[in-house]
Amino acid sequence: QLQLVESGGGLVQPGGSLRLSCAASGFTLDYYAIGWFRQAPGKEREGVSCISSSGRSTRYADTVKGRFTISRDNAKNTVYLQMSSLKPEDTAVYYCARTGYGCSDYVPSYDYWGQGTQVTVSS
Questions:
Q1: How far apart are CA 56 and CA 74, in angstroms?
Q2: Among residues 60, 53, 89, 90, which one has the least CA distance to residue 74?
Q3: What is the predicted pLDDT for the residue at 30?
Q4: In whole angstroms, how large is the CA radius of gyration of the chain?
Q5: Whole-angstrom Cα distance, residue 97 to residue 29?
Q6: Are 50 and 1 in contact, with CB atoms under 8 Å apart?
Q7: Distance of CA 28 to CAs 3, 14, 48, 92, Å?
Q8: Separation of alpha carbons 59 and 48, rounded Å
Q9: For residues 80 and 73, is the Cβ–Cβ distance under 8 A?
Q10: In this predicted structure, what is the pLDDT of residue 105?
Q11: What would the DSSP string read from start to end of 45-81?
């Protein structure tokens, strides 16, 4: 059964850090780019970051550039999102998803999604 499972979310104070994980099962991550998206209440889902299948190419939304770092460990079939200097506006449910088309913000190009993990940034 193909699955993507996010973990690592939680409550953190402004300026704090979290590391999200996206673990794949039922398929090999090697052939897919993986994107991280987030959705806050009342807002549309937005692309946060993406990493190519090889890991050599990454992209970030302007709102997180310089604060978030995406990486992957294909041997562990896992992609990570290291989030630092967190702000209240980063509060959202974070999702990872796979695409066979290369990184983009085009949501329909992603065919499998995780269930999401809640990140709350608050004092």
A1: 12
A2: 53
A3: 87
A4: 13
A5: 11
A6: no
A7: 11, 35, 23, 28
A8: 8
A9: yes
A10: 85
A11: -EEEEEE-SSSS-EEE-TTTTTTEEEEEEGGGTEEEE
- Do 95 and 78 form a contact (C-beta atoms < 8 A)? no
The tokens of 112 are what? 């499998």
Please write the tens of the pLDDT for every residue from 19-42. 999 999 999 988 999 999 999 999
- Note whether 83 and 68 are within 8 A (CB): yes
Which backbone phi and psi does 121 adopt, to 5 degrees?
-110, 110
Residue 37's nearest CA partner among 29, 46, 26 is 46
Please give the Cα distance from 78 to 1 (Å, whole number).
Answer: 16
N-terminal to C-terminal alpha carbon distance within the chain: 39
Please tell me the predicted confidence (pLDDT) of residue 120.
Answer: 98
Residues 6+ apart with CB under 8 A from 63: 89
